[in-house]
């Protein structure tokens, strides 16, 4: 039996502009994780079991777009294997679905690592390879994702990311002082694909205005990297507010997001913004630990569907446990209760 876990993620700076080649920053959220367990089976075929979703099916019956089946086929292709052994693959996740926390990417990355470990394909468990394979699966859902989600989920560290040819710029970087965030869910699901294509339509209609907005987002992301590396939390909070203003101008905020952002700032957050595609999903607030309870309460009073706390820059890395065992079981169950 081989298991692997991958974290959720938040985009700290630069969503949407990242699709247009501007820098962005994302960080893993290890309090929530996706996990894949791969076991040899006595029954012929490859079976997928996801107890949380109540699904149980065979690879041979899966549709061409099924993400788990696609992941298995991509790993098989990348390894050049004519045939795979009979397997049972169990998937579980505590990452909210369609909330901008990278749940799909994390499931794929965990499955790639667990399969690579189980089949003895260590070279496929390299962060860059995991990220590339995850990207190919993400494309099925998001059209042309920038690649930041799969990158942060595979590297499991804060990353500075620029989408570019021939190869994306991926720079994992150190955090000088731990960053305490509250991640708060509006409870409204939103489709990344739809929001991204709305922004594209507006960019096509008003190219000069949107190029200028994207440039400003890029400058904010660059300044944010410096603030994170210098441990300047006050500056970082201001930059989050500035990024939120630019995202609202792009038309990707929403009344529910604005309500939560205003509540967090009133209760003493250093900065707050939406995270991910917007129009729903999650917002993030940079806080100091002594204000946590007050800000949590303010978010709950403002209608938050869930509030999760996450510290970026403090043991972000998940031990992979690729050789088997039950390493994450208690931790994952415990973290589930934090939502
Ligand atoms: O909604 P999420 O967390 O998958 O974030 C999407 C981020 C965008 O910048 C809006 C799109 C992308 O592909 O980077």
3D architecture notes:
With 339 residues, the protein is of the alpha+beta class. The chain has ten helices and eleven strands. The strands form two sheets. Strands 1, 2, 3, 4, 5, 6 and 7 form a seven-stranded mixed β-sheet that branches. The longest helix has 24 residues, at 207-230. The protein binds (3R)-3-hydroxy-3-methyl-5-(phosphonooxy)pentanoic acid. (3R)-3-hydroxy-3-methyl-5-(phosphonooxy)pentanoic acid binds at residues 11, 15-16, 18-19, 100, 102, 142, 145-146, 148-149, 192, 196, 276-277.
Short structural description:
By secondary structure, the chain is an alpha+beta fold. The protein is built from ten helices and eleven strands. It has helices at residues 67-79, 103-118, 127-142, 148-155, 192-205, 207-230, 233-250, 255-266, 292-301, 329-336; strands spanning 2-13, 24-40, 46-50, 55-58, 87-93, 159-162, 169-172, 179-185, 271-275, 282-287, 306-312.
The secondary-structure element order is EEEEHEHHHEEEHHHHEEHEH
Which class best fits the helix and strand makeup?
Answer: alpha+beta
Q: Which residue ranges are poorly predicted, with pLDDT under 50 across at least 5 consecutive positions?
A: 321-339
Q: CA-to-CA gap between the ends? A: 29 Å
Q: How would the global form be characterised?
A: globular
Biggest β-sheet: count, sense, barrel? Answer: 7 strands, mixed
* Ligands: (3R)-3-hydroxy-3-methyl-5-(phosphonooxy)pentanoic acid
Q: What Rg, in angstroms, do the CA atoms define?
A: 20 Å
Percent helix range: 40-55%
Percent strand: 15-25%
Number of separate strands: 11
Rounded average pLDDT: 91
How many helices? The count is: 10
């Amino acid at each position: 039996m081989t298991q692997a876990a991958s974290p959720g993620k938040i985009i700290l700076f630069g969503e949407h502009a990242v699709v247009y080649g501007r820098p962005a920053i994302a960080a893993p959220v290890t309090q929530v994780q996706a996990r894949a367990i791969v076991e040899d089976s006595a029954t012929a075929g490859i079976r997928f079991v996801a107890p949380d979703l109540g699904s149980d099916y065979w690879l041979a019956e899966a549709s061409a777009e099924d993400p788990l089946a696609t992941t298995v086929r991509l790993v098989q292709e990348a390894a050049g294997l004519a045939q795979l052994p009979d397997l049972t693959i169990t998937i579980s996740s505590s990452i909210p679905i369609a909330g901008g926390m990278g749940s799909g990417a994390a499931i794929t990355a965990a499955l790639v690592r667990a399969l690579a470990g189980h089949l003895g394909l260590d070279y496929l468990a390299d962060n860059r390879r995991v990220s590339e394979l995850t990207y190919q699966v993400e494309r099925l859902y998001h059209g042309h994702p920038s690649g930041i989600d799969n990158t942060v989920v595979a590297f499991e560290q804060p990353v500075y990311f620029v989408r570019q040819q021939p190869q994306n710029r991926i720079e994992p970087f150190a955090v000088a002082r731990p960053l305490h965030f509250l991640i708060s869910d509006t409870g409204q699901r939103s489709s990344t694909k739809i929001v991204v294509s709305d922004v594209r339509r507006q960019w096509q209609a008003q190219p000069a205005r949107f190029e200028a907005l994207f440039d400003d987002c890029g400058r904010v992301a660059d300044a944010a990297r410096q603030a994170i590396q210098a441990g300047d939390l006050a500056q970082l909070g201001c930059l989050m507010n500035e990024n939120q203003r630019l995202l609202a101008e792009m038309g990707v905020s929403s009344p529910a997001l604005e309500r939560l952002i205003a509540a967090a700032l009133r209760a003493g957050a250093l900065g707050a913004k939406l995270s991910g595609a917007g129009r729903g999903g999650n917002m993030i607030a940079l806080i100091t630990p002594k204000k946590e309870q007050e800000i949590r309460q303010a978010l709950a009073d403002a209608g938050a569907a869930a509030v999760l706390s996450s510290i970026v820059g403090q043991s972000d890395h998940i031990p992979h446990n690729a050789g088997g065992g039950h390493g994450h079981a208690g931790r994952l169950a415990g973290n589930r209760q934090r939502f």
